[in-house]
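Need residues for this backbone.
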């Protein structure tokens, strides 16, 4: 039973706190059809990566910033099938306030809408696509999260569902627990531990330090 000792926990949003895969897939497929881009090529890289980077990769001829804004406006309004991940609320509320945050590849508008929709309290620290120059798999988003929480990056544990996020967290010097929701466990082997559901993760606090146990 792995145990991680840390000062803070950083959560990815989609696929970790919110089950939004259906919405993400629908909106990206619609966008791809509109612009004559191969849907499967888009979906192969869309999860866990900023819309800006995805669009720059698959359609470099488009105005990526304008397209990303339009896409995320649609995503924020698409609430069909968006639900809390089982165990998410129980997990975040077991962590002392100020010792957890959210680091997402979505915009602040989208992240706020998703968290409110699924009933997860807004954290004091939230790093979004709007707050960084480089998105995942670059370590900047997770380094920013640690900085805003006021903790050393090595004192953070990350919970991620996507390979790009795992790479970003490891690049920031953090331990990572992979949540096999969006991807199967064999795609998350770079994580330090992998769970099938969030209820396998237990957090206890003692004198400002967190113990994260995998059951």
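Answer:
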């Amino acid at each position: 039973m792995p145990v991680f000792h840390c000062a803070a926990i950083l959560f990815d949003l989609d696929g970790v706190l919110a089950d939004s895969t259906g919405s993400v897939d629908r909106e990206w497929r619609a966008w791809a059809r509109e612009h004559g881009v191969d849907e499967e090529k888009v979906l192969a890289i869309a999860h866990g990566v900023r819309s800006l980077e995805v669009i720059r990769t698959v359609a470099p001829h488009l105005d990526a910033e304008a397209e990303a804004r339009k896409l995320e406006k649609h995503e924020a309004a698409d609430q069909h099938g968006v639900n809390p991940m089982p165990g998410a609320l129980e997990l975040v509320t077991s962590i002392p306030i100020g010792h957890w945050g959210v680091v997402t590849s979505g915009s602040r508008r989208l992240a706020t809408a998703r968290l409110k929709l699924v009933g997860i309290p807004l954290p004091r620290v939230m790093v979004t696509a709007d707050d960084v120059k480089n998105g995942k798999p670059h370590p900047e988003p997770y380094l920013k999260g640690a900085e805003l929480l006021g903790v050393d990056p090595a004192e953070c544990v990350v919970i991620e569902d996507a390979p790009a996020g795992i790479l970003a967290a490891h690049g920031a010097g953090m331990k990572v627990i992979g949540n096999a929701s969006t991807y199967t466990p064999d795609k998350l082997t770079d994580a330090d531990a992998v769970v099938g559901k969030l209820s396998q993760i237990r957090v206890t606090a003692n004198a400002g330090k967190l113990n994260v146990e995998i059951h």
